[in-house]
Amino acid sequence: MGAPGSGKGTQAQRLVKQFNIPQISTGDILRKHRAEGTELGKRADAIMAKGLLVDDATMLDIIRDRVSQPDAADGFILDGFPRTQPQAEGLTKLMKELGTPIDSVVLFDVGDEELVRRISGRRTCSLCNKVFNIYTAPPATPATDCAEGSSEHQLFQRKDDEEATVKERLRVYEEKTRPVLSYYSGSGLLRTVRAEGALADITERLLKALAESVAPAPAAPKKSPAKKSAAKRRPVRRPAAKKKAKARPRPVVRRKKTAAKRAAAPKKKRSAVRSAKRLPARARKRAAKRPARRRAK
To answer: Which of 115, 171, 177, 247 is the most exposed place for a label (fewest CB within 10 A)?
Structure first.
Protein backbone atom coordinates (compact mmCIF):
# COMPACT_ATOMS: atom_id res chain seq x y z
CA MET A 1 0.00 0.00 0.00
CA GLY A 2 1.03 3.59 -0.52
CA ALA A 3 0.18 6.85 -2.23
CA PRO A 4 0.35 7.17 -6.03
CA GLY A 5 4.01 7.29 -7.02
CA SER A 6 5.31 5.61 -3.88
CA GLY A 7 6.87 2.78 -5.91
CA LYS A 8 4.44 -0.06 -5.17
CA GLY A 9 4.47 -1.42 -8.72
CA THR A 10 8.25 -1.23 -9.08
CA GLN A 11 8.95 -3.08 -5.83
CA ALA A 12 6.16 -5.60 -6.52
CA GLN A 13 7.92 -6.58 -9.77
CA ARG A 14 11.12 -7.21 -7.82
CA LEU A 15 9.25 -9.49 -5.41
CA VAL A 16 7.72 -11.37 -8.38
CA LYS A 17 11.19 -12.21 -9.69
CA GLN A 18 12.60 -13.16 -6.28
CA PHE A 19 9.74 -15.33 -4.99
CA ASN A 20 8.14 -16.43 -8.29
CA ILE A 21 4.64 -15.41 -7.20
CA PRO A 22 2.15 -13.33 -9.23
CA GLN A 23 1.43 -9.65 -8.78
CA ILE A 24 -2.35 -9.21 -8.72
CA SER A 25 -3.48 -5.78 -9.92
CA THR A 26 -7.25 -5.39 -9.75
CA GLY A 27 -7.20 -2.75 -12.48
CA ASP A 28 -5.40 -5.07 -14.92
CA ILE A 29 -7.66 -8.01 -14.04
CA LEU A 30 -10.79 -5.91 -14.49
CA ARG A 31 -9.67 -4.74 -17.93
CA LYS A 32 -8.86 -8.33 -18.90
CA HIS A 33 -12.31 -9.61 -17.85
CA ARG A 34 -13.99 -6.81 -19.81
CA ALA A 35 -11.88 -7.50 -22.90
CA GLU A 36 -12.59 -11.25 -22.76
CA GLY A 37 -16.29 -10.69 -22.14
CA THR A 38 -16.47 -12.95 -19.08
CA GLU A 39 -19.42 -12.95 -16.70
CA LEU A 40 -17.50 -10.74 -14.25
CA GLY A 41 -16.47 -8.45 -17.11
CA LYS A 42 -20.08 -8.05 -18.28
CA ARG A 43 -21.18 -7.28 -14.72
CA ALA A 44 -18.47 -4.64 -14.43
CA ASP A 45 -19.42 -3.16 -17.83
CA ALA A 46 -23.06 -2.82 -16.77
CA ILE A 47 -22.02 -0.95 -13.61
CA MET A 48 -19.54 1.33 -15.37
CA ALA A 49 -22.04 2.10 -18.15
CA LYS A 50 -24.17 3.82 -15.49
CA GLY A 51 -21.22 5.99 -14.52
CA LEU A 52 -20.72 4.16 -11.22
CA LEU A 53 -17.63 2.63 -9.63
CA VAL A 54 -17.40 -1.15 -9.56
CA ASP A 55 -18.93 -2.31 -6.27
CA ASP A 56 -16.95 -4.11 -3.57
CA ALA A 57 -18.77 -7.43 -4.07
CA THR A 58 -17.73 -7.56 -7.77
CA MET A 59 -14.13 -6.66 -6.91
CA LEU A 60 -14.00 -9.39 -4.26
CA ASP A 61 -15.33 -11.94 -6.76
CA ILE A 62 -12.54 -10.91 -9.14
CA ILE A 63 -9.97 -11.42 -6.37
CA ARG A 64 -11.49 -14.81 -5.47
CA ASP A 65 -11.26 -15.96 -9.09
CA ARG A 66 -7.64 -14.81 -9.46
CA VAL A 67 -6.14 -16.21 -6.24
CA SER A 68 -7.79 -19.58 -6.93
CA GLN A 69 -5.61 -20.11 -10.02
CA PRO A 70 -2.61 -22.51 -9.82
CA ASP A 71 0.12 -19.86 -10.10
CA ALA A 72 -1.09 -18.23 -6.87
CA ALA A 73 -0.91 -21.44 -4.82
CA ASP A 74 2.45 -20.47 -3.25
CA GLY A 75 1.49 -16.86 -2.56
CA PHE A 76 0.62 -13.61 -4.30
CA ILE A 77 1.00 -9.83 -4.07
CA LEU A 78 -2.08 -7.61 -4.08
CA ASP A 79 -1.49 -4.26 -5.76
CA GLY A 80 -4.16 -1.53 -5.70
CA PHE A 81 -6.55 -3.42 -3.45
CA PRO A 82 -8.08 -2.83 -0.96
CA ARG A 83 -8.67 0.93 -1.25
CA THR A 84 -11.43 1.36 1.34
CA GLN A 85 -12.15 -0.11 4.77
CA PRO A 86 -15.22 -2.12 3.58
CA GLN A 87 -12.98 -3.68 0.91
CA ALA A 88 -10.37 -4.51 3.57
CA GLU A 89 -12.99 -6.14 5.80
CA GLY A 90 -14.41 -8.09 2.85
CA LEU A 91 -10.90 -9.21 1.84
CA THR A 92 -10.17 -10.48 5.36
CA LYS A 93 -13.37 -12.53 5.32
CA LEU A 94 -12.62 -13.88 1.83
CA MET A 95 -9.06 -14.92 2.72
CA LYS A 96 -10.32 -16.78 5.80
CA GLU A 97 -12.82 -18.66 3.65
CA LEU A 98 -10.06 -19.65 1.21
CA GLY A 99 -7.64 -20.58 4.02
CA THR A 100 -4.99 -18.10 2.83
CA PRO A 101 -4.91 -15.23 5.35
CA ILE A 102 -2.89 -12.11 4.55
CA ASP A 103 0.65 -12.39 5.98
CA SER A 104 1.65 -8.75 5.82
CA VAL A 105 0.52 -5.29 4.72
CA VAL A 106 3.40 -3.01 3.70
CA LEU A 107 3.01 0.75 3.58
CA PHE A 108 5.46 2.65 1.34
CA ASP A 109 6.08 5.93 3.12
CA VAL A 110 7.13 8.84 0.89
CA GLY A 111 6.88 12.62 1.43
CA ASP A 112 4.33 14.60 -0.60
CA GLU A 113 6.96 16.71 -2.40
CA GLU A 114 8.79 13.60 -3.55
CA LEU A 115 5.51 12.01 -4.68
CA VAL A 116 4.62 15.04 -6.84
CA ARG A 117 8.11 15.01 -8.38
CA ARG A 118 7.94 11.30 -9.14
CA ILE A 119 4.47 11.28 -10.69
CA SER A 120 4.88 14.48 -12.67
CA GLY A 121 8.11 13.01 -14.08
CA ARG A 122 6.37 9.94 -15.53
CA ARG A 123 6.44 9.47 -19.28
CA THR A 124 4.89 6.69 -21.35
CA CYS A 125 6.12 5.40 -24.70
CA SER A 126 3.35 5.53 -27.27
CA LEU A 127 4.98 2.68 -29.20
CA CYS A 128 5.62 0.01 -26.55
CA ASN A 129 3.58 1.43 -23.60
CA LYS A 130 6.60 1.27 -21.27
CA VAL A 131 6.61 3.76 -18.41
CA PHE A 132 9.73 5.81 -17.61
CA ASN A 133 10.57 8.65 -15.26
CA ILE A 134 12.66 11.53 -16.48
CA TYR A 135 14.03 12.04 -12.94
CA THR A 136 14.57 8.53 -11.55
CA ALA A 137 14.47 6.11 -14.53
CA PRO A 138 14.96 7.88 -17.86
CA PRO A 139 14.83 5.85 -21.09
CA ALA A 140 18.07 4.66 -22.67
CA THR A 141 19.43 6.49 -25.68
CA PRO A 142 19.41 4.97 -28.21
CA ALA A 143 16.37 2.88 -27.28
CA THR A 144 17.40 -0.76 -27.35
CA ASP A 145 14.42 -2.07 -25.35
CA CYS A 146 11.53 -0.74 -27.44
CA ALA A 147 9.25 -3.59 -28.49
CA GLU A 148 8.56 -1.90 -31.81
CA GLY A 149 12.27 -1.77 -32.66
CA SER A 150 12.41 2.00 -32.71
CA SER A 151 15.73 3.67 -31.94
CA GLU A 152 13.98 6.26 -29.80
CA HIS A 153 10.99 6.06 -27.46
CA GLN A 154 8.04 8.27 -28.27
CA LEU A 155 7.24 9.67 -24.81
CA PHE A 156 4.13 11.49 -23.68
CA GLN A 157 2.69 12.54 -20.28
CA ARG A 158 -0.70 11.22 -19.23
CA LYS A 159 -3.24 13.71 -17.95
CA ASP A 160 -3.37 11.82 -14.62
CA ASP A 161 0.33 12.57 -14.15
CA GLU A 162 0.08 16.34 -14.45
CA GLU A 163 1.03 18.21 -11.27
CA ALA A 164 -2.45 19.65 -10.54
CA THR A 165 -4.04 16.23 -11.01
CA VAL A 166 -1.41 14.58 -8.84
CA LYS A 167 -2.19 16.84 -5.87
CA GLU A 168 -5.89 15.99 -6.16
CA ARG A 169 -5.09 12.27 -6.30
CA LEU A 170 -3.03 12.59 -3.13
CA ARG A 171 -5.90 14.37 -1.39
CA VAL A 172 -8.33 11.58 -2.33
CA TYR A 173 -5.79 8.98 -1.16
CA GLU A 174 -5.50 10.60 2.26
CA GLU A 175 -9.28 10.75 2.59
CA LYS A 176 -10.12 7.22 1.43
CA THR A 177 -7.10 5.08 2.25
CA ARG A 178 -6.04 6.29 5.69
CA PRO A 179 -8.90 4.37 7.39
CA VAL A 180 -7.61 1.19 5.71
CA LEU A 181 -4.18 1.74 7.27
CA SER A 182 -5.79 2.16 10.69
CA TYR A 183 -7.71 -1.08 10.13
CA TYR A 184 -4.57 -3.09 9.36
CA SER A 185 -2.55 -1.36 12.07
CA GLY A 186 -5.12 -2.50 14.62
CA SER A 187 -4.79 -6.11 13.45
CA GLY A 188 -0.97 -6.03 13.78
CA LEU A 189 -0.31 -6.69 10.06
CA LEU A 190 0.91 -3.24 9.01
CA ARG A 191 4.63 -2.69 8.32
CA THR A 192 5.98 0.70 7.25
CA VAL A 193 8.92 0.97 4.83
CA ARG A 194 10.68 4.23 4.01
CA ALA A 195 10.45 4.22 0.21
CA GLU A 196 12.92 6.99 -0.60
CA GLY A 197 16.45 6.51 -1.89
CA ALA A 198 18.02 3.93 -4.19
CA LEU A 199 15.77 1.11 -5.46
CA ALA A 200 18.10 -1.56 -4.05
CA ASP A 201 18.00 0.03 -0.58
CA ILE A 202 14.18 0.18 -0.64
CA THR A 203 14.03 -3.48 -1.70
CA GLU A 204 16.32 -4.44 1.19
CA ARG A 205 14.06 -2.62 3.68
CA LEU A 206 11.01 -4.28 2.13
CA LEU A 207 12.46 -7.80 2.44
CA LYS A 208 13.43 -7.12 6.05
CA ALA A 209 9.87 -5.99 6.86
CA LEU A 210 8.41 -9.11 5.22
CA ALA A 211 10.82 -11.39 7.10
CA GLU A 212 9.77 -9.83 10.40
CA SER A 213 6.08 -10.23 9.58
CA VAL A 214 6.26 -13.99 8.88
CA ALA A 215 8.67 -14.81 11.74
CA PRO A 216 7.01 -16.30 14.82
CA ALA A 217 6.53 -13.69 17.50
CA PRO A 218 8.38 -14.34 20.80
CA ALA A 219 6.20 -15.50 23.63
CA ALA A 220 5.21 -12.65 25.87
CA PRO A 221 6.43 -12.99 29.47
CA LYS A 222 3.76 -13.72 31.99
CA LYS A 223 2.79 -10.65 33.89
CA SER A 224 2.77 -10.92 37.65
CA PRO A 225 -0.47 -9.75 39.18
CA ALA A 226 -0.25 -6.11 40.15
CA LYS A 227 -0.13 -5.48 43.85
CA LYS A 228 -2.99 -3.42 45.17
CA SER A 229 -2.24 -0.18 46.92
CA ALA A 230 -2.59 0.04 50.66
CA ALA A 231 -5.69 2.24 50.29
CA LYS A 232 -7.48 -0.27 48.05
CA ARG A 233 -6.25 -3.36 49.84
CA ARG A 234 -8.96 -5.13 51.73
CA PRO A 235 -8.23 -6.08 55.32
CA VAL A 236 -7.51 -9.73 55.67
CA ARG A 237 -9.61 -11.39 58.33
CA ARG A 238 -7.63 -14.07 60.01
CA PRO A 239 -9.35 -16.70 62.09
CA ALA A 240 -9.10 -16.02 65.81
CA ALA A 241 -6.49 -18.10 67.54
CA LYS A 242 -7.93 -20.79 69.73
CA LYS A 243 -7.33 -20.28 73.40
CA LYS A 244 -5.18 -22.92 74.91
CA ALA A 245 -7.07 -24.90 77.50
CA LYS A 246 -5.54 -24.79 80.94
CA ALA A 247 -3.71 -27.91 81.74
CA ARG A 248 -5.66 -29.82 84.32
CA PRO A 249 -3.68 -31.43 87.12
CA ARG A 250 -3.45 -35.10 86.78
CA PRO A 251 -5.51 -36.91 89.37
CA VAL A 252 -3.45 -38.68 91.99
CA VAL A 253 -4.15 -42.33 91.76
CA ARG A 254 -3.67 -44.08 95.01
CA ARG A 255 -3.13 -47.70 94.51
CA LYS A 256 -4.72 -50.03 97.03
CA LYS A 257 -2.25 -52.09 98.97
CA THR A 258 -2.67 -55.75 98.84
CA ALA A 259 -3.22 -57.74 102.02
CA ALA A 260 0.38 -59.02 101.93
CA LYS A 261 1.80 -55.51 101.71
CA ARG A 262 -0.41 -54.26 104.50
CA ALA A 263 0.73 -57.12 106.77
CA ALA A 264 4.40 -56.43 105.99
CA ALA A 265 4.16 -52.68 106.51
CA PRO A 266 4.84 -51.45 110.07
CA LYS A 267 1.78 -50.23 111.88
CA LYS A 268 1.65 -46.52 112.52
CA LYS A 269 0.45 -45.16 115.83
CA ARG A 270 -2.81 -43.46 115.59
CA SER A 271 -2.42 -39.84 116.39
CA ALA A 272 -4.61 -38.61 119.15
CA VAL A 273 -4.42 -35.05 117.74
CA ARG A 274 -7.22 -34.33 115.40
CA SER A 275 -6.99 -31.94 112.57
CA ALA A 276 -6.55 -28.48 113.95
CA LYS A 277 -8.97 -27.01 111.40
CA ARG A 278 -11.83 -29.16 112.68
CA LEU A 279 -11.43 -28.32 116.44
CA PRO A 280 -12.82 -25.27 118.18
CA ALA A 281 -10.42 -22.71 119.65
CA ARG A 282 -10.50 -24.10 123.24
CA ALA A 283 -9.94 -27.66 122.06
CA ARG A 284 -7.02 -26.52 119.90
CA LYS A 285 -5.29 -25.05 122.92
CA ARG A 286 -5.64 -28.27 124.89
CA ALA A 287 -4.46 -30.32 121.93
CA ALA A 288 -1.40 -28.12 121.55
CA LYS A 289 -0.42 -28.71 125.21
CA ARG A 290 -0.69 -32.52 125.10
CA PRO A 291 2.60 -33.27 123.37
CA ALA A 292 4.38 -31.10 125.91
CA ARG A 293 2.80 -32.94 128.84
CA ARG A 294 3.63 -36.29 127.31
CA ARG A 295 7.24 -35.32 126.84
CA ALA A 296 7.38 -34.11 130.43
CA LYS A 297 6.02 -37.40 131.72
So the answer is: 247
Task: Tell me how many degrees the CA angle 113-185-5 measures, rounded to the nearest 5.
Answer: 25
Q: Which residue has the higher pLDDT, 249 or 120?
A: 120
pLDDT tens per residue across span 158-181: 877 777 888 888 888 888 887 899
* 264 pLDDT tier (thresholds 50, 70, 90): low
The number of angstroms, rounded, from the C-alpha of 118 to the middle of its chain's C-alpha atoms is 36
User: Over 50: is that where the pLDDT of 273 sits?
Assistant: no
Q: Report the side by side order of strands in the sheet with 155-156.
A: 131-133, 122-125, 155-156
Instruction: Enter the DSSP assignment of 243.
Output: P
| Strand-pair partners of 124 | 131, 156
Active site residues: 8, 83, 122, 158, 169
8 A C-beta contact, residue 48 and residue 54: yes
User: Domain 8-121+157-214's class?
Assistant: alpha beta
Report H helices in the chain: 8-19, 26-36, 39-49, 56-67, 85-98, 112-120, 163-186, 199-214, 259-264, 281-296
CA dist 69 and 71 (Å) reads 6
Residue ranges of domains in the chain: 8-121+157-214
Rounded distance between C-alpha atoms, residue 136 and residue 195, angstroms: 13
The reported pTM is 0.60
The DSSP element (H or E) to which 229 belongs, if any, is: none
Q: 26-42: b or e for each residue (b if 16 or more CB lie within 10 Å)?
A: beebbeebbeeeeebbe
